[in-house]
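Problem 12. The chain below contains 134 residues. Write out its predicted structure in token notation.
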Amino acid sequence: MADNIIAKKTEDFAVRIVKLWKYLTKSKEYEMSNQIKRSGTSIGANVVEGLFAQSKKDFISKMNLALKEYAETQYWLRLLHRTEFLTDAEFSSLNSDADEIGRILSSIINSAKKTTNNNNNNNNDDVFVIDDEE
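Solution.
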């Protein structure tokens, strides 16, 4: 899993979010900091779950959940910035990382859906077949 780009990027992002949470709680900001910690760390958790999905449909579902958490995290980043808990530079850096994750997740979801649609058009089910007639 160390070679998986999205798993690495989301874990690195989660570390940044936890550090942000620590900084915010020292500033006595608890509500938004807890929300962004939950959503920002959940992105990677859903990605890792997706890597161990039981089917292509399950994989797409987990990646979609990660994308939803990304969108929520962006909301909290914008709100923290607009309420001056984040400087322009801090917001820009975190938002840039989040945007990259969002683009990668969207691409993964679109690719997975295309391969699922191609498999369905070829009448292949999303199951593994073991040929034991040797």
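Discussion. Confidence is low (pLDDT under 50) at residues 124-134. Students who got a different answer should revisit the alignment rule from Section 12.3.
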